Structures are given as structure tokens and as C-alpha cells.
UniProtKB/TrEMBL annotation, chain A:
The chain crosses the membrane at residues 12-30, 102-123, 135-156, 201-223, 274-299, 305-327. Pfam families: BPD_transp_1. It is a multi-pass membrane protein. It comes from Shewanella corallii. It is found in: Cell membrane. It comes from the Bacteria. The keyword Disulfide bond does not apply. Residues 96-328 form the ABC transmembrane type-1 domain. Its main location: membrane. This is ABC transporter permease. Coiled coil: none annotated.
From TrEMBL, chain B:
PROSITE patterns: ABC_TRANSPORTER_2. It comes from the Bacteria. Keywords: ATP-binding, Cell inner membrane, Cell membrane, Membrane, Nucleotide-binding, Transport. This is ATP-binding cassette domain-containing protein. Pfam families: ABC_tran, oligo_HPY. The lineage of its organism: Bacteria, Pseudomonadati, Pseudomonadota, Gammaproteobacteria, Alteromonadales. Its main location: membrane. InterPro entries: ABC_Ni/Peptide_Import, ABC_transporter-like_ATP-bd, Oligopep_ABC_C, P-loop_NTPase. The keyword ATP-binding applies. Residues 4-258 form the ABC transporter domain.
Length: 343, 336
């Protein structure tokens, strides 16, 4: 197991190094002076120029430049934003929690609804129920997320006026920032209106989370259904039946733990598509997350923001997919079987 | 009253080649306290019969049966809940595929403990310890030396034989009235096989557990069983008390099985031509009509294209149009 973890860590480091190399090379292709692209200072003084050359080893060899680039970026120095003149690292700290909040709520929604419905689709005897569920998930899978977001906000936000369609919280509420997660901040805020602010935050997250949840939800339903249908034909389920266990016990204790293994694995595969969907959703609903921030940076040719936005998002995807792989191995005794005699 | 009484059970399977009758008009009577052997080649439908009795049909099965009585109750009329209760306590089964019959995602111990009977006198927090003790006792009885190690392991970490022992312990722990043992000792070493059979025989004698023993080993079955039922390709050929069946087989198939047993006494046996029935058992999608032994049967005639009914005669059942008759005095093998 230790060897396995070491290999995964190695994989993470190697993939990240390649990612940083791509970023390092891409920075060179920006149509501005290299020093400006690296630091974001558009009219540097003589002193600042000297400092940049020293910090990024611009007078050294390619390799030492790459090492210096790694040192600066991983040390948290991402330069300043060319439009706002603020530190990019500081802006990232502001926008990351909002994205995490959206993604966590979305994942919970997709799993909490997707797994039971997938199980239902697999266990149901009626062909009609199965077909309805499969038709709905296939539809959900193929709906473009930007169209769904716009339609939902048009219908529920504009025509019916039930839900707010942009932002994270009504500007009326002034909530001190503690964790960065608005749902938590509003709850712990020591103000008389904290409860109503929390309700407002919940109302704000419904539309973007629903829009974003449709895609992972359909994937979870389809994979749970396939895995469950497969597990239910296995001999050990029949043996459990023969022992007189009730169907509910068989599903909860024997079938579900086995069926969830491929679901977890598919979550890792889904991450890339899921992240790009999250960016689109953040833009549509003006969600103050890293995706909207990155897209705005692209519009404004804010090279430092583009670089660090891509770096953070890509590092997160790499980290999450390796984390899911490790979790998959840790929680699933069967995958440890595959590890036997492999290292 | 028989414990289990089945009349004319047919199982049809939906396969890509169409619907095939895997079992055709099978009848079986099992008396309380009896060890009943099902003898037949693999693929002759013995396991299908076992699963049908157990009540765990596959999704592509169609079962038709005239009568299926369990201890005076009609199994067909029970609802699924009553049936499930019966399966847990009264009927237990040892499966043919032991490692596949254990959940691979959970430790062996948790699965054994789950299957152990509750002790009604204890509080719920004491149950687990009690069940663990019982589980260890049963594991010891089926011949596992260090139950603690085994209970920590996952099913794919232990050997097939150990899985089989675990399945036997699980099946026996609830003290069933009928135990269906589907090739219970295939992957065990010989000494343990004997131990398991002795355990089964003891259960049968002391607790009166009826056993339906499925095997293809004639020697084993004749040694341990009170009665035998001979299967061929999904049809019952012959059924009766073991000693009578062995001494005077009525059905040509039974006689051939017994005649062609390898003769260990002959020192040249391993070099000699081994007699066997010509041809091979038919595949499911090419079953002959009528008596399925027909194309291979040495005494087949025109009438054999109609399936012979199982004829009951003095505690013997035989499904043949031309059963072998024995003259009381002469004892020769001449077909009438």
C-alpha cells in the first residue's frame, strides 16, 4: 500500500511538472514582453525590470529559467493582475471558495439523487419505469449546459420570478468573510439577519447548482444502474437471497457497496468535462468563482490571470483525479486484489 | 408425508438460440430424514433443480410445475416474504461456486456473522459476540484450524476449498430441515472431503436434517445416500432406494453407468480399452425429442420419440418404455 501511495504521489508530481512546463512555454508566446507576461507590471521601472530578470533568471539558461519559474509560481508569487493591479494570489483566494461551494453542492445533489434513482432503475421490474428513467437521463446527458442554464434562468428567474439568477448573495446583506463559503459564513455571522441571508444564499445557489448537476447526475444514474444490474446477477447476491436476507438488506449490504465502486471511478473520469461545465455555468449565473474570473481575464487579455487560473484549475483536476484513484483503492478491497504482485 | 414433493417440474430458459427446455417433467420425492442423491453429468440440470427448490430462479427462467409441496404447504402459493423466511431457516444450500458465492467487497467474517442465527435471550449488543462464537465453532466443525485469520480475510484471499468450508458452515448454522448440497466437496483435499461427509451424515442422523446431495461421483453417492435419482440431460431416468437401484437397475442409462465403472481390481485396467457410452450428451440447443437418451440408448426403439412417463412401481420410479426386467430366480440382464 505504501508503495502504491508513493507511486501515486510520483504520478502527481510528474504530471504537475509537465503542466508547469507547458505553462512556462506558453508564457513565452504571449504577444507582450516576457517580463510583463510574467509579472503583470505593464510599465515597469528600471528597478522592477532588474528585479524581474533576477527573480525569473531571465539571463540564465532555459532550464534555470524553468526552475526559477517553478520557484516563483509554487511559492505563491503569481504577479499582479494587469487590469485590477491587485495580487493574483489574493484574487484567487477570493474566488476559489465560491467555486468549491458550487461544486460541493452540485456533487452532493448529483450523488444524493443519482444513486437512489440508478438503483431504482436497476431493480425495477416495470419496463416503463426503466425506459422513462433512461430516456430522461439520456436527454439530460445531451442537453447543452449553456442552453439549459439560460432557459432555467429565463423561466424560473425572469418569467416566474421565483429565484435570483446572478451572484452568490443579495448585495443588501453585508456578511463578514470568514471561510469564504457563503452558505457557512451567513450561518455563523453574528448579525440579526443571518438567517434570512442564509436563505438568500440558498436561493442563489439553486439555479446554478441544478444546471451544473444535470450532467454528473445523468452519468451517476447510468453507471449506478449498469453496475447494480450487473451485481444483482452475481452468485453472491443469490447466495445472500438463499440465506433468507431481505431484499433491502441485500441491496444495502451486498449489492450497493459493490456497485458504487465503478461510480467512484467514473467520477474521476468525469472531472475534466465537469470543470469546463462549471466554468460555463459560473459565467451564465455571474457566480464569483474561479471560472468566471478566468473567462473575464481572457476577455481582458490579462495574461497573469490566464496563467494562474489555468494553473490552479489544472492542478486541482490532477490532484482530484489522483485523490479519487487513491480513495477508490483505499475503500475498495477488490482493487487491492489487483495490486497483488504488481509492485 | 414427504418433506418435499415435486411433480412434473419443467424449466425453460430463454437463450439467444430461442427457448430451451433445460428440465423436462422432473419429479422428485424427498422423505424427512433421508439423504437423497442426485446423480448426473454436469449440464444435466441438477443445479437448476436445486435452485428451483431453493426459490432463486434466474431472470430468464420460466418454471412450470404441477405440484411443489414443502411439508404439506404449497411452495407456489407462498408470497415472496414467506418464501424468503423459509429459505433462511428451513432450507439451506451449499453452492457449487463457493468463491463466487461470497461478497468480494466484505470480509469473510462479517458475512459468516451476518448469517448466524440470533439468540433470542440476549440483548442486541450481546448478539455480535455470541454470533462470533457460534461462527468460530462452526468453522472449527467444518475443518478450519485458525478461524480468526480466516475471518479477517476477504473471499478472494482464501482458497476455493476454504470458501467452500465457509459456505458449508453458513448453510449448516441455521440448522435447516433440508440441506441442498450442490457438489459440496469438489475443491477440497480428500481427508477433508471425508470429514465433511461425516459431518453431513452426523447432522442427518442426530438432527434429522434431510440432505439433497448433488454429485457426479457414483461411489460417493452410493456410499452416503439412502435414495438416488439419476438425471440425464434434464430428465429423470430412474429413482429408487440406493441398494435396489445399484443391484437391479431398471433403466438402460443406470445400467450403463454401473457397468462402465472403471475396474480397479484388474491390473491391466489402465492399459485396457475403457468402455463408455457412444456419443456425447446433447447440447441445450439441440435436444432430441422424447426420451433424451434415445439417440445413444442401446435399447432404443421407435416408441422412444415420445417422452416416457415416470412409472411408479414398488418404491421405484423409472422413466423408460422398455425397462429392464429381472427374473426373481435367474437374475440375468435381459430386456423384456
Amino acid at each position: 500500500m505504501a508503495k502504491y501511495l508513493l507511486r501515486r504521489l510520483n504520478l502527481f508530481l510528474a504530471t504537475s511538472a509537465v503542466l508547469m512546463l507547458v505553462l512556462f512555454l506558453a508564457t513565452r508566446m504571449f504577444p507582450v514582453d516576457l517580463g510583463v507576461a510574467l509579472t503583470g507590471v505593464e510599465q515597469p521601472t528600471q528597478e522592477q525590470q532588474q528585479q524581474t530578470i533576477k527573480a525569473y533568471a531571465l539571463d540564465g539558461s532555459g532550464f534555470s529559467q524553468y526552475v526559477a519559474f517553478l520557484q516563483q509560481r509554487l511559492g505563491g508569487n503569481m504577479g499582479i493582475s494587469m487590469t485590477s493591479q491587485q495580487s493574483v494570489a489574493g484574487e484567487l483566494v477570493d474566488v476559489l471558495p465560491a467555486s468549491f461551494e458550487l461544486i460541493i453542492v452540485t456533487s452532493l445533489m448529483a450523488l444524493a439523487l443519482g444513486i437512489p434513482i440508478g438503483v431504482l432503475a436497476a431493480l425495477s421490474n416495470s419496463k416503463a419505469t426503466q425506459n422513462v428513467i433512461m430516456a430522461l437521463t439520456l436527454t439530460g446527458y445531451s442537453i447543452p449546459v449553456f442552453w439549459l442554464g439560460l432557459s432555467l434562468s429565463l423561466w424560473f428567474g425572469v418569467k416566474l420570478g421565483w429565484l435570483p439568477i446572478s451572484g452568490q448573495l443579495n448585495l443588501l446583506y453585508e456578511i463578514p468573510r470568514v471561510t469564504g463559503f457563503v452558505l457557512i459564513d451567513t450561518l455563523i455571522a453574528d448579525t440579526p439577519y443571518s438567517m434570512s441571508a442564509f436563505k438568500d444564499a440558498v436561493l442563489h445557489i439553486i439555479l446554478p447548482a441544478t444546471t451544473l448537476a444535470v450532467f454528473p447526475f445523468t452519468v451517476v444514474v447510468r453507471i449506478t444502474r449498469a453496475a447494480m444490474a450487473n451485481v444483482m446477477t452475481q452468485t453472491y447476491v443469490r447466495a445472500a437471497e438463499a440465506r433468507g436476507l431481505s431484499t433491502a438488506m441485500i441491496v444495502l449490504r451486498h449489492a450497493l457497496p459493490n456497485a458504487l465502486i465503478p461510480v467512484l471511478k467514473s467520477m474521476g473520469l468525469m472531472l475534466g468535462a465537469f470543470t469546463s461545465y462549471a466554468i460555463v455555468v459560473e459565467v451564465i449565473f455571474s457566480w464569483p468563482g474561479v471560472g468566471a474570473w478566468l473567462v473575464q481575464g481572457i476577455y481582458q487579455r490579462d495574461y497573469t490571470v490566464i496563467q494562474s487560473g489555468i494553473m490552479v484549475v489544472a492542478l486541482l483536476i490532477i490532484f482530484m483525479s489522483i485523490l479519487i484513484d487513491v480513495l477508490h483503492t483505499a475503500t475498495n478491497p477488490l482493487s487491492r486484489k489487483e495490486l497483488y504482485a504488481t509492485n | 408425508m414427504p418433506l418435499l414433493d415435486i411433480r412434473n417440474l419443467s424449466i425453460e430458459l430463454d437463450t439467444p438460440h430461442g427457448r430451451v427446455k433445460a428440465l423436462e417433467k422432473v419429479s422428485l420425492t424427498l422423505n424427512p430424514g433421508e439423504v437423497h442423491g442426485l446423480l448426473g453429468e454436469s449440464g444435466s440440470g441438477r443445479s437448476l433443480l436445486a435452485r428451483a427448490i431453493m426459490g432463486i430462479p434466474g431472470h430468464n427462467w420460466t418454471i412450470t410445475v404441477d405440484r411443489m409441496m414443502w411439508d404439506g404447504k404449497n411452495l407456489l402459493e407462498l408470497d415472496s416474504k414467506e418464501r424468503r423466511a423459509l429459505m433462511g431457516s428451513d432450507i439451506a444450500m451449499i453452492f457449487q461456486d463457493p468463491s463466487g458465492s461470497l461478497d468480494p467487497a466484505r470480509s469473510v467474517g462479517s458475512q459468516i456473522i451476518e448469517a448466524m442465527p440470533r439468540n433470542a435471550e440476549l440483548k442486541f449488543w450481546q448478539q455480535k459476540k455470541y454470533k462470533r462464537q457460534i461462527a468460530e465453532q462452526w468453522l472449527h466443525k467444518v475443518g478450519i484450524k485458525n478461524p480468526d485469520d480466516l475471518m479477517e480475510a476477504y473471499p478472494w484471499e482464501i482458497s476455493e476449498g476454504e470458501c467452500q468450508k465457509v459456505m458449508i458452515a453458513i448453510a449448516l448454522a441455521n440448522k435447516p430441515r433440508l440441506l441442498i448440497a450442490d457438489e459440496p466437496t469438489t475443491s477440497m483435499e480428500l481427508s477433508t472431503q471425508a470429514q465433511i461427509f461425516r459431518l453431513l451424515a452426523k447432522l442427518n442422523q442426530v438432527h434429522g436434517v434431510s440432505i439433497l446431495l448433488i454429485s457426479h461421483e457414483i461411489e460417493t453417492l452410493t456410499h452416503w445416500c439412502d435414495r438416488l435419482t439419476v438425471f440425464y440431460s434434464g430428465q429423470v431416468m430412474e429413482s429408487g432406494v440406493t441398494s435396489e437401484l445399484i443391484n437391479s437397475p431398471r433403466h438402460p442409462y443406470t445400467r450403463i453407468l454401473l457397468e462402465y465403472l472403471p475396474n480397479e481390481a484388474n491390473p491391466h485396467a489402465h492399459k485396457a480399452f475403457m468402455p463408455s457410452l457412444q456419443g456425447s450428451a446433447p447440447a441445450l440447443q439441440h435436444l432430441p425429442i422424447g426420451c433424451r437418451l434415445g439417440p445413444r440408448c442401446p435399447s432404443a426403439r421407435k416408441q422412444c420419440v415420445a417422452q416416457p412417463l415416470l412409472i411408479h412401481e414398488k418404491d421405484r420410479y423409472c422413466a423408460c418404455h422398455f425397462p429392464i426386467r429381472y427374473d426373481e430366480n435367474k437374475h440375468d440382464h435381459t430386456a423384456s
